[in-house]
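Batch manifest, entry 17 of 40.
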Amino acid sequence: MENIEVRHERIKGDGVELHVARAGEGPPAILLHGFPENWRSWQRQIPALVRAGFSVWAPDLRGYNLSDIPPGREAYRLEHLVADVAALVRASGASRAHIVGHDWGGIIAWSFAAAHPGLVDKLVILNAPHLDIYAEKARRFPQMLRSWYVLFFQIPWLPEKLLAANRYGAIRRMFRREPARPNAFSREDIAHFVAAISKPGALTAGLDYYRANIGLGKLRRAPVKPIEAPTLVIWGERDPALGVELLEGLERVAPRVRVHRIPDASHWVQNEAPGEVNRVLIDFLMETR
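Output type: structure tokens
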């Protein structure tokens, strides 16, 4: 990875062991991936962060890739996911860390920053809604239409069957076709993600993030306490699943927020526009308070 040494370790989380890819020395930045990816989601950010003087901690979230896959959807409730991040901060040896999250990693990051303000230096979110705002917008058009897959994922066994059909053809097509910028993911990237999500129990674990936290009539809202940390939201505006209206009202939940929009990128913003994301991300992390 661009001549950057990546070390692979196992860290104890909240009743599970997490695989973590580590690189660099300096203030810790914990990078949290989304569905259906793993630590490799950040391969274009890790070298830039290391060169900028940060130590990078990029875990496979529980249920993904080389981390433990606990059985049962209750194992994927937000309180456990947040506790895993707290364990990572403690393992870093620092009193606090920069928390960076995309997609489900971003939802976890929002929740972690609200629940553990003393452990967060700065917060960076990439195309991930704050659940309080999502709960409001998902009840109205157009976000209601964009959220169709969330309802589909609540159905037992059928989503797994359809997503896994034809050698995980739906997931392969998602990585090939949904990015607004072509070639955001290489054939090797896609093969890696498919191999990881096809491990026994892994696809169900990824879907259980939705089932445990945003099921019908039981949206598990993020803590309502405003987030104290300086916050940067990077948003690819061509996201087919998460509309820009989810940026409305962020000041209520994160008074120190700023938003950087990338008009010609979509949901996979850190892979589609890595140069711009890295520049904005590192500039923000290196600012003095």
